Amino acid sequence: MISIHDLSFQYSAGNSIRFPDFTVTKGEHCLLLGESGSGKTTLLHLLGGLLRNYAGSVKVDNTELAQLSETSLDRFRGQHIGFVFQRNHLVSALSVEKNLMLAPYLAGLKINTERITEVLSGLGLAEKRKSSVTQLSHGQAQRVAIARAVLNKPSIIFADEPTSALDDKNCDRVIHMLMDVAAQNQSTLLVATHDQRLKDKISKQVKLSSS
């Protein structure tokens, strides 16, 4: 499902980073561990096709990303990958429902209002469907971001530091929420984090070095 081999990436400043080989199978949950500067976010962006021009191999859902054109990559990402970023990137001018509608629209998929109902209800957000995202609490906005990430039933979910700014109670809530929605859709889940509280939650772990 996810496989990298001999992967390295050179930043515009000239310094480069090399990543360990690893594979994550379909439906598996995995932590990507490392301190700040170890390349966790860079690796997620490479795996999601947000960064290109890498050396080595990046296969996602049995597809070598380097072989896809920009247009094909955009469509592939929208149909197969769900992203939960450090910041939720919700569109403040839109309602919760319309923010979710962006996910299938940008992926070239038909908008399914029943699926929106299903996902919002599952995350305890049904009553917020028509609300502006500016009216949401931080926790509610984070759940909307998770809802948008899983709306298209992606085969892979990437989450970048989803718990680093949360207290213990909300940390547990968010990681279990991600694991639950991934399990419901049989999605592969890769969580990049330096949050030590998550190490006991997911047994498969890949450690990145900052050196």
TrEMBL record:
UniProt domain ABC transporter: residue ranges: 2-210
Source superkingdom: Bacteria
An example Gene Ontology CC term for this record: plasma membrane
Molecular function GO terms recorded: ATP binding; ATP hydrolysis activity; transmembrane transporter activity
Key words, A-Z: ATP-binding, Nucleotide-binding
SUPFAM superfamilies to which the protein is assigned, alphabetical: P-loop containing nucleoside triphosphate hydrolases (SSF52540)
Keyword Phosphoprotein tagged: no
Protein name: Putative ABC transport system ATP-binding protein
Organism field: Ohtaekwangia koreensis
